[in-house]
Amino acid sequence: MNEEEKTPAEGGVTPDSQSAPKVAEQAPVETMAPTPPTPPPAAENQAQEPQGDGGHKLILAVAILLIVGGIAAGGAYLYTEYKNRVPEFQNPEALTGKLYLTLRKNSANDLPDLYIYDFSTKNLEELPVGTTEDALRITSHSTSDSSQVAYAAASQDGVLQIFSTGERVRQLTNSSIRLKRNPEWSLSGEKVAYMAERANRNETSLYKPEAWSVFVVDGEGNERYITDGAYPQWGPDDNTLLVLKSDGLHVFNIASSTAVRAWKARGGAATNMKIDVSRDGSKIAWSSPEDGQVLLLSVSSWSPFEASYIGKVPVHAFWVAFSPDSTYLATQSVTWDSLKENPRARVEVYDTTTLKGGKVFGLDAYDQEAMFVTDWN
User: Fold this and answer.
1) Of 115, 145, 169, 305, which residue is the least packed, with the fewest Cβ within 10 Å?
2) Residue 201 pLDDT more than 70?
3) How far apart are the C-alpha atoms of 233 and 241, rounded to whole Å?
4) How far is CA 79 from CA 65, 71, 73, 76, 82, in A?
5) Are residues 39 and 344 in contact, defined by beta-carbon separation less than 8 angstroms?
6) Average of pLDDT values for 107-125?
7) What is the DSSP letter of 348?
């Protein structure tokens, strides 16, 4: 087994948030300086001192300083814009299929909802799922033939459950476990893996992967606990799951209830990192937004697990999703040095061989704190 040590983000965010909580700064208190005394009027016959050349030189020097300062400020702004420029994807006609997202409009009255971006029509539209319009819906994933879409939504009792579309909407889970999300269909379409808040986690930070638990539910609604960790991704069959833990990526065998660490995280992993496995099981993507990179691995065997290092995509990205044929990787990218003020959230696509790519469409109209890119099919 080959291991590539990866520097994870320090700290992290919950899957509901793509950046650290914003802390309001106390506004400075305005103070008023005492009014200076009014000087006595000059005598009418008092001689006026001539201004001379010194005054003109002073005015000229101040003007020059202002001009130079303006040029410097403008240059700094242009440099920042140049540094943060986002190139466009150069071959958009090569992209096919649909990208599944969860978005919330920049309005306090809107709830997150499910969206699809069609690469052929270049349209971003809400995904109709047949439930009430005011329901909270997040994180969707489709079967390989796109006949069903699994998603998390708040049921009538307010607990997030996993639902599925198809000929009709079905509720797949019915447990009281909180914060269910990130459902993932197995290749057979018979099972769904998902993550949820760990029972009795006490004060464990949601930034830590082990604050979450991984479950699998079948078509009959039978839910089974698998392990503690986050972002379960199916391997090449219904028996293999890849899970993010604090010390790296682990491959879990459901039948034998055994696991091995597949790839090490130097210093520890956090839940602001995301992972995806291509549908054919040949590639793994692992984002580290604070480090500005997405690690790509090529998998030659899942049992025993063997993988090799492809490279790193140099992008500050949270969510990652492979194209159906694993040729491309979509990322939910941001501009890191202005994340709180202007994240410039967008979807970028990269070639998994050349590691080159660019922006496909922007997400400025949506809240970056409630943004998921969870599937491409």
Assistant:
1) 145
2) yes
3) 5
4) 21, 12, 10, 5, 5
5) no
6) 92
7) E
Residue 329: helix, strand or coil by DSSP?
Answer: strand
- 293: nearest Cα among 268, 263, 320, 324: 320
Strand partners, 100: 116, 375
What pLDDT is stored for residue 44 in this prediction? 44
Picking from 195, 210, 305, the residue whose alpha carbon sits closest to that of residue 260 is 305
Give all domains of the chain, ordered by start, each with its CATH number: 98-376 (2.120.10.30)
Handedness of CA 278, 284, 290, 292 (dihedral sign): negative
Comparing CA positions, the residue from 338, 331, 206, 195 lying closest to residue 271 is 206
Query: How many alpha carbons lie under 13 Å from residue 357 in its C-beta half-sphere?
Result: 28
Q: What pTM was estimated for this model as a whole?
A: 0.79
The torsion region of residue 348 among left (phi > 0), alpha (psi -120 to 50) and beta comes to: beta
Q: For position 107, what pLDDT does the model report?
A: 78
Question: Which residues have a Cβ under 8 Å from the Cβ of 91 and sit 6 or more positions away?
Answer: none
Residues in a beta bridge with 124: 117
Map 222-288 to HEC letters: CEEEEEECEEEEECCCCCEEEEEECCEEEEEECCCCEEEEEEEECCCCCCCCCEEECCCCCEEEEEE
CA dihedral 36, 38, 43, 44 (to 10 degrees): 120
* Spatial contact of 142 and 377, defined as CB atoms under 8 Å apart: yes
